[in-house]
């Protein structure tokens, strides 16, 4: 199977000029050899379902945090039909800057996934897993999703639905502790607290 090499620049895909011409593609093995040799310089490598390798720059404001507008209608529908645990986490922990002033978004399309909750400033994705996440194929998809999001520069925190419903203060404290570590290590502050 042949694989096309593409790079990501400001949300648009383009052929990598130093690797191949627009009409030519190379195999995955050849790409891996070039990556190990240092010919390919990228933050990460992701494989899509069509066997296209995307060289992705880390998520940032210049590429709209890898927002995928093709998934927006589906994400909008998911926002209207939140699960009980998603509703509780949103209403009592994440909504309206309750988490130290950071803005979270619900059902945010990133890459070819929809993240349950996402904060741009912290590069944080929060995922809630229910009963279906015990199935082998779902576990595999979740692992792939987490790897792709981490490769794009996001940190993924996962909680079980039961944790949110029965121990929401524990979940809130875990998120707060993670934020405090990020603030200390990286000097991150909410946009609204920054002096211009």
Structure explained in plain terms:
It is built from six helices and eight strands; from the N terminus they run ββαββααβββαβαα. A four-stranded mixed beta sheet has the order 2-1-4-3, with no helix packed on it. A four-stranded mixed beta sheet has the order 5-6-7-8, sandwiched between helices. A hairpin with a 5-residue loop joins β3 and β4. The N terminus is likely disordered.
| Contiguous uncertain segments of 5+ residues | 1-55
Report strand order across the widest sheet: 2-1-4-3
Question: Mean pLDDT, rounded to whole units?
Answer: 74
N-to-C order of helices and strands: EEHEEHHEEEHEHH
What does the secondary structure layout of this molecule look like, with pairings?
Layout: E1 5-9, E2 12-15, H1 28-37, E3 44-47, E4 53-56, H2 72-80, H3 84-94, E5 105-110, E6 113-119, E7 124-129, H4 136-151, E8 155-160, H5 161-166, H6 168-186
Parallel strand pairs: 1-4, 7-8
Antiparallel strand pairs: 1-2, 3-4, 5-6, 6-7
Could you give a short description of this structure?
With 196 residues, this protein is an alpha/beta fold.
Brief descriptors of the model:
6 helices; alpha/beta; 196 residues
């Amino acid at each position: 199977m042949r694989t096309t090499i593409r790079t990501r620049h400001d949300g648009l895909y383009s052929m990598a000029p130093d690797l191949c011409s627009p009409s030519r593609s190379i195999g995955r093995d050849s790409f891996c050899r070039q990556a190990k040799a240092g010919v390919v310089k990228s933050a990460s490598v992701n494989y899509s379902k069509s066997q296209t390798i995307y060289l992705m720059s880390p998520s940032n404001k210049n590429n709209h945090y890898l927002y995928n507008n093709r998934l927006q209608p589906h994400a909008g529908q998911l926002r209207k039909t939140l699960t009980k645990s998603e509703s509780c986490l949103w209403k009592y922990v994440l909504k309206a800057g309750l988490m130290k002033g950071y803005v979270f978004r619900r059902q945010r399309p990133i890459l070819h996934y929809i993240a349950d909750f996402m904060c741009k400033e912290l590069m944080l994705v929060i995922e809630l897993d229910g009963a279906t996440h015990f199935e082998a194929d779902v576990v595999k998809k979740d692992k792939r999703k987490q790897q792709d999001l981490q490769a794009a520069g996001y940190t993924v925190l996962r909680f079980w639905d039961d944790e949110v419903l029965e121990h929401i203060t524990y979940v809130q404290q875990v998120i707060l502790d993670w934020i405090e570590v990020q603030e200390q290590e990286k000097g991150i502050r909410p946009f609204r607290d920054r002096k211009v």
